[in-house]
Amino acid sequence: MLNKSEKNLLLLIRIIPILIIIFFSIFTTTFSLIQNNQSFEKEVKKLKEEYTSSSKERVKEEVERVYNTIITEKETTEKRLKENIKSRVNEAYTIALSIYKENIDKSKEEIIKTIKSALRNIRFNDNRGYFFVYKMDGTNIILPKSMNLEGENLLDLPDAKGNFVIQEFIDIAKNQKEGFHSWWWYKPQDNTKQHKKIGFVKYFEELDWFIGTGEYVEDFEQEIQKHLLYIVQNLKYGKNGYVFIVDKDGVYLTHANKKNVGINRIDLKDPNGFMITREILKIAQNGDGYTRYIGTIKPSTGKPAEKITYVKGYKDWEWAIASGAYISDVDEIIAIKKAELEEKNDFEITKMLISSLVVTLIFIVLSFILTRIIQNYFIEYQEKVRDETETNRQKDEIMFQQSKMAAMGEMLENIAHQWRQPLSAISMQASGLQLNISFDKNMDKETINEKLNNIIKSTQFLSQTIDDFRDFFKVDKEKELFELKAALERTLKIVESKFKNRNIEVVLDVSSVEIVGFENEFIQALMNILNNAKDILENINNKEARVIKISIAKQNDKAVIKIHDNGGGIPEDIIAKVFEPYFTTKHQSQGTGIGLYMTQQIIVKHLGGTIGVKNIPIEHKGKSYLGAEFTITIPCT
């Protein structure tokens, strides 16, 4: 049977489509009647407005695209410059190192001479770039642009702002081996303005030198400008669309007519006397905006035509970026639209009314059919959900019992290990006492009491072991607040004897973290992981180190438990399957394949957490091993 919410949903599905169709039909029919009663002149006017608006948006789009490209290129100038000069210095370093190694049998003076000869005449970046070389005490070795300073100590030479560049380079070479540094300097042809320069140096250990080069950001930027102007010059869109750029003096850097490129057209006028270039520069200085004038040439006709132009200024380079749309293009579109409107108006109203009626009837029928199908689906789905839920519940209950039985087997084995030593001690103490009494009838009470006390201590240990294992099998009725560290200690106490017998070392890094949940289920989840790790570690060839590292920490509002062994990890082709039920790599007599599946169920369903596993290296006593790391996260209180 359907519940109230499902019945209401079916009712809405049945009614809402009908209401929507009726409303839509009324609205569209009314709107069409109003629209078709308007005059053709109004349609023409609207078309012009739309064309003008879309044209303005289109030219603005194209200008903004170019503008954003320029910004992107400008922003990456220094990055690309750094990549360029670093690459060059690495080339010089490679040359110097190769010469040094190939001439190692020669004198130091011969090697230095050969390196200087190889590097001195190398030029790059349009002949602006060269290499400089210094000793680590500031003495110049190579300075091609100022050879008179070679051999001089320039440690205290300041740049245009008073910073000691060579000292900065030495610090970089000494502490970082290589790196970048920027400074300000006057260009040889301009001693009135400082220009930013970026350099890169690399330490050449073999001769205690550093090798470097530098480039003015402005010079490198000019190369980028040339590249961008080339792209814009060849950029075309639509039938007559193009982007042009004008500098602050009125020189056209790009234009559809290549004859205008490089020409100063500051006094350019249209037939009405409008100062085109001056207005474009004025808008660019103020940011951006539109202007309207008679263009000197329309590409498709070769004649002047009215156009709307959008202009945007780029202040860093003092450029005006612009593009225009020709108004006359709309006339052809208007003629076509007029013919369409005349043909359309004769039957539009009748068609709309008939279509609306037919669609409404169709949707009414479909809504009834659809609701009937959905109702049947709801009923069928409810039955399937109930069946699947019951099946899964029974399956999980069986698997949980299997997991408990497997854990009980582990417990019995652990009890046997835990009891073996104290039982042996009790036997030895009792046998010794019996022999002593037989041979020494006057044996003193102190000796007797000592041996009896040892027997009592051993029996107390056995009793405590029973309590520990009994506590593990208690059924947690309700969730309670418990401390993860204490739960871990209980777990390790249960498996302690097996780990010792197999020489497995447990390393802890545990913080105090509390969560709300079922403590015994959490312990069972830990034991499943630890027993898996134990089985792996006892089969590895590495006898010198069998280690499990366990950490517990609080990160934000979650407890994070990590269990990491050095057992070689889980094969990558099966690691994704380890949490699947009945999946095991052990022999059927050694494993059920439900341990890690139940661990995942406990962590995810009962504790509201997550669990995952991956293979990563583990460090132990200065050595690195590969191992599996299980990570558990559980919400904290």
Any overview of this molecule?
With 637 residues, this protein is an alpha+beta fold. The chain is built from 13 helices and 18 strands. The chain has helices at 4-36, 40-75, 77-102, 108-120, 165-175, 217-233, 276-286, 329-345, 348-439, 445-472, 484-501, 519-537, 595-606, and strands at residues 132-135, 140-142, 178-187, 190-204, 209-216, 236-237, 241-247, 252-254, 288-298, 303-314, 319-326, 480-483, 505-510, 514-517, 547-555, 558-565, 610-620, 623-635. The strands form 4 sheets. Strands 6, 7, 8, 9, 10 and 11 form a 6-stranded antiparallel β-sheet that branches. Strands 2-1-5-4-3 form a 5-stranded antiparallel β-sheet, sandwiched between helices. The protein has a 5-stranded mixed β-sheet with strand order 13-15-16-18-17, with helices on one face.
